Structure formats: C-alpha cells, structure tokens
C-alpha cells in the first residue's frame, strides 16, 4: 500500500501533485531547497482548496484536513526516508535529476518506488543512476495538475510490471486517468503537442498570420481549449524549447528542429506568462 508520498519540487507541478495526493488521503512530504519555495507551494494549494470551499465542494474542515496532510521539508533525508513513493518534480536538468535519484536511492527504504514527473527526459537514463532501476518509473502529470485528468505512466527499460501496476492504481486513486507509455523522447504527449506548438511558432516566424489569428483558428476550428501560442506561454517558452531540443537530439530528425523564433524569444528572456511576456504580454 502506498501511504507516504514525497514530492520533490514545490513549483507549479510539484505543488499540484502534492495537492491531488493529499486530496486522495495520502500523507505528503513536500520538499524543496528553501523554505520560501515550500511556503509558496503551500500557499497555492491553500488558495486552490479555498476556492473549492467557496464553491461548496469542500467544507472548511475538509480543506484543513487536506492541508494538514502536507508537511513541508527542506531536508531531503527527512523528506524521503519513510516514503513509499517519491515523485520528483524538480527542474528539467539531467545532471540535477540523476544526482537526486542517486541520493534518493541511498535515503529511501528498499521498497520505495522512485517516480519522475519529467516531461521528456529518458526514464531509463534516470533509472540507471540508481541501484533499483526496476523501481523507477515516469509519472507525467499535466498542467494545471488539479484540473487535468491525464497521467502518462512511462515504463523505463527495466521497470517491473508490479511497480507499473502500483503506480497505475495510485494514479486512479488520485482521481486521474493513467495511460501506459514506453520510454521514447517526449513520450506521447509532448512528442505530439510540442511539434504542433513549434509549427504554430514557425507560422508566426514566416508571417503566415498574427499570434491571435493562429490561436483563434485552433480554438474555434479545432475546439482546443487554448490556442497553441497561448498554451506555449502557459507551459513556458524555455520548457517548450527544452522539449523540442530533447526531441531533436533524441530522434536525430530535422522535423523536430526548434523554430529560430522560439530560440530568439528564450534568449530575450521572453518566457511566456511567468516572465510577463511571450507571444502575448501579461500584466
Ligand atoms: N490550478 C487549479 N485550478 C485551476 C487552474 C490552476 N492553475 N487554472 C484553472 N483552474 C480551474 C478553475 O478554477 C476552474 O475550476 P471550476 O470549473 O471548478 O470553477 C477550471 O479550472 C476552469 O478554469 P477557467 O474557467 O478559469 O478557465 P478555462 O475554462 O479556460 O480552463 C484550463 C482553464 C483548464 C487551463 C483550460 O484552458 C485548458 O484545459 N487549457 C489547456 C491546458 C493544457 O493543454 N495543459 C497541458 C499542458 S502540456 C503539459 O502540461 C505537459 C508538459 O510536459 C509541457
């Protein structure tokens, strides 16, 4: 039984994962490097839950119980030494992730499953940093985590069937719909989503249409909830570039070449919503 979950990284994804885990009745340790980061993550969770109270979907007592199940910890050993499952949602950097997984492998009990929320890095390579590659798996949540139904569950080369099954069951208990995927660059979600976004950026680059027009075509013509450029700003243009580079390098195919305009925006510090400017300007 998975009861104790440790979430590493209290940013947008990590705090969302901690929220849905606590809502599913699990005990959660939320870990980040500094107290101000865990405090910020907890404040977002509290705001989300309070909105549910206002809408009559939760009582104040239920909100407080859920919040009470999330304990912030900046020390990795304290955060992970009793975990049944660790879900890592730290920055998308292979060196940082392999270092974290090496440390987690030493800190965690032998039964602990180590999952990563990476959006495109190879699960198999992350798993190889540990002595338990059969217990390492991808658990890719979508943004915003409390709202989006999907979790891509990615098998590394060595992932055991039993580990896959336990993670699939847990994703369901968290109110999500898991989909089984094998370990290839970008998995399924980003292999398909990011080339579409990159193509939308190329359409801007080539002067086919203005960003607003491109988004309107995809929203009204294809019923997408957000146009691809609004979505790119939402995901973060640095993340979009990083995923395109992972696809380009992983497949060695020029069809995944990142659009030069995407590179230029990232170099300019236009990263989308989080920096106040991307394809749109945010106040
Ligand atoms: N956190 C928690 N709840 C949120 C939220 C957030 N950040 N943003 C919106 N919500 C909730 C709202 O409170 C609202 O809840 P209720 O229905 O209970 O009132 C609900 O979501 C709908 O929100 P809105 O009415 O404000 O706006 P909307 O109808 O436009 O929906 C959206 C917002 C759900 C984000 C929708 O625009 C959407 O689905 N966009 C596409 C999102 C998407 O594609 N995500 C995947 C990104 S790719 C990814 O994550 C993978 C990767 O590796 C890069």
UniProtKB/TrEMBL annotation:
- Could you tell me which pathway this protein works in? Lipid metabolism; butanoate metabolism
Q: Where is this site: Important for catalytic activity?
A: 140
Assigned keywords, A-Z: NAD, Oxidoreductase
Q: Name one GO biological process term.
A: butyrate metabolic process
The highest taxon in the source lineage is Bacteria
Domain named 3-hydroxyacyl-CoA dehydrogenase C-terminal: residues? 186-282
Binding of NAD(+): at which residues? 9-14, 32, 92, 97, 119, 143, 274
Q: Which GO terms describe its molecular function?
A: NAD+ binding; oxidoreductase activity, acting on the CH-OH group of donors, NAD or NADP as acceptor
* Residue ranges of domain 3-hydroxyacyl-CoA dehydrogenase NAD binding in the record: 4-183
Q: Which Pfam families match?
A: 3HCDH, 3HCDH_N
Q: Which InterPro entries match?
A: 3-OHacyl-CoA_DH (IPR022694), 3-OHacyl-CoA_DH_CS (IPR006180), 3-OHacyl-CoA_DH_NAD-bd (IPR006176), 3HC_DH_C (IPR006108), 6-PGluconate_DH-like_C_sf (IPR008927), 6PGD_dom2 (IPR013328), NAD(P)-bd_dom_sf (IPR036291)
Q: Which family does it belong to?
A: Belongs to the 3-hydroxyacyl-CoA dehydrogenase family.
Q: Which protein is depicted?
A: 3-hydroxybutyryl-CoA dehydrogenase
Write down the species.
Marininema mesophilum
